[in-house]
Specification:
The chain is of the alpha+beta class. Helices cover 38% and strands 20% of the residues. The protein binds acetoacetyl-coenzyme A (CAA). InterPro entries: HMG_CoA_synt_C_dom (IPR013746), HMG_CoA_synth_N (IPR013528), Thiolase-like (IPR016039).
């Protein structure tokens, strides 16, 4: 029985900052942002928006688009790393908002939790809900997994140009119209790391940028190794002589803290997959130099980072590799469409890879490609750290859903704000009743806390029609 994504809906706040304004304010070359990072517009949550309201808005769109009633839904999970409460789960806020529209207690029969593991938790939530349906526990009801985040870094930090905000809601069902997950191939890896973390009470993360980039690559590659074994064992992929697993995967969708990271992840995975195949000779002759080797053959993250000569040579080689015709061909055909949304929205943490999936479907469809039966491989990464590699196959009825996907229309009329206004929002000095935009047909935050101590931290929302 195939189980997977039946439909998906997105919510992106309409405020944004433009990369040229940002570059000027911070004294950065705009080309670095446009090409080195791959960002043109960063979506920003308004003063009356938070990860719960964005999650509820994405969920409401999903329900409306599919004429779903609360009775059709058995579980609502929210995966986020922008938690609003140390105990109360974000999905309970979402349930509260939805019940304002659908009626009191209409979702009482459902279940769910808030999931946390940096940017990878949405993938765990999808996997768990898929298995809940596969196990026959769903009583013919669907699950909704919402990934929602505000990526916020310190002003002036290197992470500041990898911010963004938004949510994606995914409908998980039997016989899905969009994508069926491959069974018995999902592979995970987990390790105690401090590449990116946010201690309790701190709004912005502490990040070791270079370390987090390298860790992401190493962990996704390790999870891919296990995926490979499982995919061959389960029989979904038969690897011929001189072939790589990536030859058998039509599209690759990875975690996208920023667009360029997707490009670099593809380069890293391809180098590992290809260096033992005959095509490598061609690649090396096109680059004109051998691939550098680290001094320590164990290749641990610590030994690689300590080997500064290797790091420099390897970065140079990686840039040359990304110019080769072999890389470009795979990038254009298997990844580029998934990166388009990231460049105009920015980082969505848990939602980044799923916005990438949405982008892939929309922009490949616009190219006129027949997507039926195409396999998508996913490389999900969460700092701290864990990676998950899994795959799914696009289903026959995908066109009915993909033809109505329109990123620009779904985001809506956007408003650019100045860097000064962005900084005011960043400092949280503007309160929920001082939003820049008038909300229409969406949930917004209308109050935090009450006049009495027993209502401290209460968050109230309403549907602004
Ligand atoms: N024109 C064109 N390109 C330029 C340029 C110019 N004038 N100047 C620099 N560049 C290029 C650089 O060559 C580099 O390209 P390559 O990656 O191809 O080498 C790119 O711009 C980035 O420049 P730097 O290497 O100088 O990097 P930076 O100091 O700007 O930092 C960053 C980049 C590490 C990603 C930083 O933004 C950061 O710390 N971000 C937060 C952490 C993060 O996103 N980590 C990712 C993995 S962890 C994760 O994914 C979890 C999560 O979601 C947070």
């Amino acid at each position: 029985m195939p189980v997977g994504i039946d439909d998906m809906a997105i919510y992106v706040p309409k405020l944004y900052i433009d990369y040229k304004d940002f570059a000027e304010a911070r004294g950065i070359d705009p080309q670095k942002l446009e090409y080195g990072i791959g960002i043109k517009k960063m979506a920003l949550a308004d003063a009356n928006q938070d990860p719960a309201s964005m999650a509820a808005n994405a969920c409401m769109r999903l329900m409306k688009n599919n004429d779903l009633n609360p009775q059709d839904i058995g579980r609502i999970y929210v995966a986020t790393e922008s938690g609003l409460d140390e105990s109360k789960a974000m999905n309970s806020f979402v349930i509260g908002m939805l019940e304002q529209v659908y009626g009191e207690s209409t979702l009482e029969h459902a279940g769910g939790i808030e999931c946390k593991f940096a940017c990878v938790s949405g993938s765990y939530a999808l996997y768990d809900n898929t298995n809940w349906i596969r196990a026959g526990e769903s009583n013919d009801k669907a699950a909704i997994v919402i990934v929602s985040d505000i990526a916020k870094y310190d002003i002036g930090s290197a992470g500041e140009y990898t911010q963004g905000a938004g949510a994606v809601a995914l409908l998980i069902k039997e016989n899905p119209r969009l994508l069926s997950f491959d069974e018995k191939v999902t592979s995970t890896i987990i390790k105690n790391e401090y590449d990116f973390y946010r201690p309790i009470g701190k709004e912005t993360p502490l990040v070791n940028g270079l370390y987090s980039n390298l860790l992401y690559l190493i962990q996704v590659r390790k999870a891919l190794e296990t995926y490979k074994e499982k995919a061959i064992k389960s029989g979904i992929i038969k690897l011929g002589n001189d072939e790589s697993i990536i030859d058998h995967i039509d599209y690759i969708s990875v975690h996208l803290p920023y667009r360029r990271m997707g490009e670099k992840a593809l380069a890293y995975l391809l180098r590992h997959e290809w260096r033992h195949l005959s095509r490598w000779e061609d690649i090396i002759s096109e680059i004109g130099t051998d691939e550098p080797l680290p001094k320590d053959p164990r290749g641990t993250i610590e030994s690689i980072l300590a080997d500064t000569d290797f790091m420099k040579a390897d970065e140079k080689f990686r840039r040359e590799f990304m110019k080769t015709k072999h890389y470009k061909e795979i990038f254009d055909s298997k990844m580029s469409s998934s990166l388009q949304a990231s460049a105009v929205i920015g980082n969505l943490y848990t939602a980044s890879m799923y916005m990438g999936l949405r982008s892939l479907l929309e922009f490949e469809f616009l190219k006129g490609v027949d997507l039926f039966n195409k396999r998508i491989g996913f490389g999900s990464y969460g700092s701290g750290c864990s990676a998950m590699v899994f795959s799914g196959v696009i289903q026959e009825n995908y066109k009915d859903l993909v033809k109505r996907m329109n990123l620009e229309k779904d985001i809506g009329q956007r408003t650019k704000i100045s860097i000064k206004d962005y900084e005011i929002l960043h400092k949280n000095t503007r309160k929920y009743d001082e939003a820049f935009l008038n909300a229409e047909d969406e949930f917004i935050l209308i109050n935090i806390g009450g006049t009495t101590a027993d209502r401290a931290g209460f968050r109230e929302y309403c549907y602004a029609s």
